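> tool_call: predict_assembly(chains=two)
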Amino acid sequence: MHEFTDRTWLWFASALYFAGFVLGTIGVLRDQRLSRASVYVTIALGFLVQTFGMYLRGLAVHGCPIGNTFEIFQFTAWSATALYLVIGPTFRLSLLGYFACCLSAALTLVSLSVPSWDAVIRVNLFGGNPWIEFHAALALFSYGVFGLLGLTSTMYLLQFYSLKNRNLRGFFAFLPSIVDLDHISYRLLTFGVVLMTASLLVGSRYWLMHSARVEPVKMISTVVVWCAYAAALTLRWRGVLIAKRLAIVCISLFVAALLSLGPVSYNFKNVPQRTAPGPR
Amino acid sequence: MEPSSSAQLFLVGANHHKTPIGLREKLALTAEKMDQFCTALSQLRGLREYAVLNTCNRVEFYGVVESPEVVETLQAEFCQFQGLSPEDFRSIRQHALGPGAVQHLLEVSSGLDSQMLGETEILGQVKDAYAAAQKRQTVGPVLNRLFQKAFQHAKFVRTNTAITEGQISVANVAVDLAQKIFGKLDKTRILLLGAGDIGEKTAKAFQSRGAATLTVSSRTLERAMELARTFNGAALPFEVMPQHLADYDVVVCSTSAPHAVVTTADTSVAMKKRRAQPLFFIDLALPRDVETEVAGIENVFVYNLDDLARIAEENRAAREAEVKKAREILSEKAEALWKQLGYGLGGNNAR
C-alpha cells in the first residue's frame, strides 16, 4: 500500500467512477432498468478510495488539498459524490447515480490527465488559518453542489426534450419526472447558494483584516459566481426563471463556475511551492 | 415426449383467438353456473383433477383424465350445460394434451396469449382459478405442480423480457405520460372536459392510479354532475372553466365542440398563476379541443389522440418483438416441467 502515491489512489477512484458509468451505459443500451444498488456501491467505493487519496494529499500539503487546479477538480468531484451519496437514497431519482458517475469520472479523469495542473503543489496554503481554510473548503463544496445541480438540470432538459418531442423510449424511459427533477434542482440551488453565502461571509472576515493578501481577480470571480447563482435562485423563487430556462442557466453557470476556478487557483500569493511529484 | 401413462394432462376450452365476443359471453360461467357445473363435473368418472380458468376472454379447463375420451365427455357436458352444439364448440375450441397444455398455461399466465399482449391481470386470474380449484379440492399432485410452476415461470418471463413494458391502451399511455411529468399522482388534480367515452376511460385510469382529485366540466352541468358522482369527484360549470384552469395539473379534453375550447390566452394566464408547475393537456377530442399554439407555452405539454395512439402502437410493437424471446424461454421451462409432471401422471416421460 505504501508504494502507492495519492495520485495512484485517485486514479483507482477515477476508474471506479468510470466503471459505474460503463455499467450504467450498458444497462441503458440494453434497455434495462439500472440496479440502483450496484451503481451506488460502485460510486461509494470510488468515493472511499478518492477520500483516501485526498487524505494522503492533505497530509502532504498540511491542509485541505485545494491548492492547484488538479486538487480543486478532485475536491469538486469529491463534494458532488459525497452529496449524491446522501441525497441519492433519499430522493431515489432514477439515473441520478449514473449521471453522478459521469460527472465524477469526467472531473477526475480530466484533472489526472493534465499533468501541468498538478505540477506545482502548494504546501500549508492557508498559513494555519483554519477560518480561511474553512472558507475555501466550503466554497468548493458549494461547487460540488452546483455540479450535482448541473446534472439534475441536464436530466431535466433530457426529460423535457423527450416529452416535447414524443421520444419516450430507450434511455428516456428511465428518466425521473420533470416535477421531481425541478424540486431537487430547486433544493440544490438553495443549498448551494446557502453554502456559498456562508463561505463568503467567513472569507469576508479574513478579507477585512488582510485585504492586501487577497487577489482582486479571485475575489471578483467568486463574488460574480455567487451573484449569478443568487440571482437564479431569486428568479426561480419568484417564478420568473423556471423549467427549461432555469435548467439551461444552471448548466451554464456551472460551466462558468468551473472556468472561474482558473483565476482563483492561480492567484495564491506568498505560498510555499514545490514541484510535483514529490514524496506523498 | 408423449407419456405412455394411463393418465393424461389436458386443456380444453374457448378463448378470444377463435371465439367472437358474443359467443364468449354465452360461454362465460357466472359464479352460480360455475358452482353448478363443477358439481356436475365431480360426478364425471375418469376425471382425476381439474381447474377452470374463466375470464372475459377465455373459459378453459385444465385437468388430468384417465383417458382422452373423458375430455370429450367433459366437452359434451359443457356444451349441453351452456346450450351450444358440440360441432360449433369444436370449431372454436382450444385443445391440447400433455406438453401442449403445459406450454399453453405458461403462455396464458405470462400474458403472451392475452388479447392485450403482456397484460398482467391474467396472472391474478390464473391464481384465482387455482385458488378456487384448491378450495373445491379438485387439484392434485399434477395440477398443483403445474400451476405453481406456471406462476413462477410467468414471473421469470416478465422480469427477464420486456413483454410487459410500456402501456398499450390510450388511457394508460396518458397516465404514464402524466407520471413522467408529475411523478406520483397522489397530489395531481385532474379536470375532465366533456363527457366523451374515451375521456371517461382516461379519467378512470387516472383515478385507479391514485390521482388526488377529479373534476368534471361539461356544457351540460347535469351531465357533469352525474359523471362526477361516478368518480366521487366535483363538477365545474363549463363557462367558468377558463378561470379555473390554473387549479388543475392534468386536463383531459374530450368534448364534441366544433372548435377549440382551450385557448392560448386562457392557458397563458393560467400558467402565470401556476408559476413553476407544469400543465398537461390530453386532447382526445376530434376536432381538437386545445389550440395548437398552446403547446408552445413554456412548461405546457399537449398530447393529442394521434400522439397517444402512436405511443401505444410503439409499445405494442416493442412487446411483440419480445414474444419470440419469451416463447423460447417458456418452451424450455415447459419441457422441463413436463418431464417433472410425468411422475405425477405415472408415465415414463421423465426419461
